[in-house]
Amino acid sequence: MPRRFHDQEEILPPASLLKRLLAMLYDGLICIAVLLVITWAYTLLAAWTIGFDQYQALAEGGKLNTDPLLTLVLLVSLYLFFGYFWTRSGQTLGMQVWRIRVENNNGTSISWLQALLRFMMSWVSWLAAGLGYWWMLFDPQRATWHDRFSESRVVSVPKD
Predict the structure, then answer these.
(1) Taking the domains of the chain in order of start, what are their residue ranges?
(2) 117 CB contacts (<8 Å, ≥6 apart)?
(3) Interatomic CA distance for residues 82 and 93, integer angstroms
(4) pLDDT tens digit sequence for 146-159
């Protein structure tokens, strides 16, 4: 059941590009820490599974430089991180600091499917030289590519 953040009639202003980028910076630092811990746990588990000596030999031989399973684990972890916050409170930790929130047009929390669509398209937005983010400067509703793709929006949250 989606959580209602405010009345459907209440229209909150879209978040500025600057606030979005600053929240991304905060969340990026948190994600780096999360990914380091997950990589450490994955490495320990892999070394324990195949043997520490054999794992060290693989690492020294450069055979572990590209590990598709680790990449998949890290991507899924990032999706779960963002999806958890977006579907529960609409705000990651960085978004809380800058008082912005992702929500549906009717003021409710987004679904896990919307979070997945948003997560995937935000990578496309970023990898296209940030064009998906810069798009909001010319969009009449100030929406990014991933806002449109996931049928959600990022709003500025008023002070209590």
Answers:
(1) 17-156
(2) 146, 149, 150
(3) 10
(4) 999 999 999 999 88
